[in-house]
Amino acid sequence: MAILVIGEHDNKTLRPSTLNVVTAAAQLGTDVDILIAGAGCDAAAHEAAAISGVNRVRVADDPAFADGLAENIAPLIHGIASEYTHVLAPATTYGKSILPRASALLDVQQISDISGIEGSDTFVRPIYAGNAMATVKSNDALKLITVRTTAFDAAEQSGSATVETVSGGGDAGLSKFLGEELTRSERPELTTADIIVSGGRGMQSSENFAMLEKLADKMGAAVGASRAAVDAGYVPNDYQVGQTGKVVAPNVYIAVGISGAIQHLAGMKDSKVIVAINKDEEAPIFQVSDYGWVADLFEAVPQLEAAIEPS
Amino acid sequence: MKVLVPIKRVIDANIKVRVKTDQSGVELNNVKMAMNPFCEIAVEEAIRLREGGQAEEVIAVAVGPSQSQETLRTALAMGADRAILVEADPSPEPLAVAKLLKAVTDREGPGLVILGKQAIDGDNNQTGQMLAALLNWSVGTFVSRLKVDGASVQVTREVDGGLENIELVPPCVITVDLRLNEPRYASLPNIMKAKKKPLDVLSPTDLGVDVSPRLEVIRVVEPPARAAGVKVSSAEELVDKLKNEAKVI
Lengths: 311, 249
Ligand SMILES: Cc1cc2nc3c(=O)[nH]c(=O)nc-3n(C[C@H](O)[C@H](O)[C@H](O)COP(=O)(O)OP(=O)(O)OC[C@H]3O[C@@H](n4cnc5c(N)ncnc54)[C@H](O)[C@@H]3O)c2cc1C
Ligand SMILES: Nc1ncnc2c1ncn2[C@@H]1O[C@H](COP(=O)(O)O)[C@@H](O)[C@H]1O
Fold this sequence. Notes:
The complex is a heterodimer of chains A (311) and B (249). Chain A has 311 residues and is an alpha/beta fold. Chain A has helices at residues 17-26, 42-49, 70-80, 93-105, 209-219, 227-231, 262-265, 297-307, and strands at 2-6, 31-38, 54-61, 86-90, 111-114, 116-119, 122-127, 132-138, 143-147, 162-165, 175-182, 195-199, 222-225, 252-256, 273-278, 291-294.
């Protein structure tokens, strides 16, 4: 069984999501290739070649692939998919936009966001915001799958795969990348951070988030948020944790002024340790918290920050 | 320009779902159903395009059991002009839905199809992308801003790293994210008016689409439960627990 992993990258560096997907792929078979579709993406390709357990990196270098446009990349996947039994991509916004398009071109019913593998055709996935776990068996000959990255460990990086070029796809002439507004931060990234400090509507303003950032910096943590905090404009959209935001599973998740709606829990309940700070002792977040502190966050957060030794 | 808005009937977002004891799925009987929240945003956006003069007609289309007519009536009450039900029970998988929607698109000839980014039952996040592939149209996924200006469509997408701006060649498929707009509530007079708006019912056979499933559901179970832990009452106590009990900092 040969397995193709769609590598996620920004041409210069490989996104860590690729490492988790390779681990999932390795559970399906030993013949794992990675596709790097980009423009001037040599550096990303060489990083991919260093992932343990990867056989071959296939590089498609074309200006049309520079910005991850699904219209241009899906036909490339379509062109080489017949060489594989499984095609896997991360369940990130990148994988979610590209893989379903390739699936439809291949007439395959994709399996989204798997968190477990029970066999070459049988997979476990959360549905209803993680309130139920479905085990599904695919009857398609080819399987296209997006992988929940937090459910699989990152692969080691001590391999030396061969790097080859591959062609296909190209500019479909349907869409054009105009630009991006990326959130720049020196802090760890949400999806890979060991510790996350997350704020909700209880924070009341974007200025007050500075308090959480100070705590996060002392702990070496990333900063996240609930949908309510993002909708209110306290923090950018990419901070959102939940069913329709990012799924995270750090060692410690500290929820501050977050009530614990099911849609928020869907994104963080696989964290190892959950801490909640909330002034309402009835808040549902306490039902999933290992450590709950009923307190006014405006007093509790500075106290917590003072009690933590710098990381 | 016509705008087609596919909407799905799902368990209301505020209801806690229950897994059936026979592990065949989740309990749908006697459970409050509603329009998928992302679909409400899609309907709202389409109506705004018509109100802004960029669209002439808004057509809501649902694939699913006959009760989906209620959901279509809600879209009509919000302001959609007419509705189509493709009756199929249970609601088919995303690929089959995309094929049915392609057939409806071919019949109706819309300039824009606006879907939700995700249905909150299966959390698949596939249908719009698949429909765009089958039509060979451009697609803007996870859209938080949509600008339709004659022959140019510009979208802002919410992506993992922040925001992205893309220009699309129409006709195109759009899948909407939460922050695109705030959907309106239907007023009572509009709910009454909606009862008289046209609603056509088709079958997958009428559209020539095979909707047989590709996936077999082996079982559906509860997720592993998380037990509530202990309460702490000071920062020192919390830090001590994290350090010496949980050993995570
Ligand atoms: C389709 C759909 C998708 C969604 N997706 C997501 C998602 O991905 N992520 C997500 O987070 N939500 C999502 N939601 C929204 C979700 O349902 C909740 O509305 C949201 O999570 C609430 O955010 P919150 O907990 O910050 O706000 P609230 O529910 O308003 O809670 C605020 C909390 O702060 C506490 N508080 C207030 N002041 C203080 C203080 N001074 N000190 C201590 N505590 C205080 C209050 O007691 C309260 O518990 C989604 C909803 C829908 C319908
Ligand atoms: N059965 C259906 N009928 C109509 N529209 C649907 C149906 N299933 C999915 N959709 C549309 O596709 C979007 C994404 O759904 P999904 O791919 O299932 O997550 C939804 O928000 C709807 O706009």
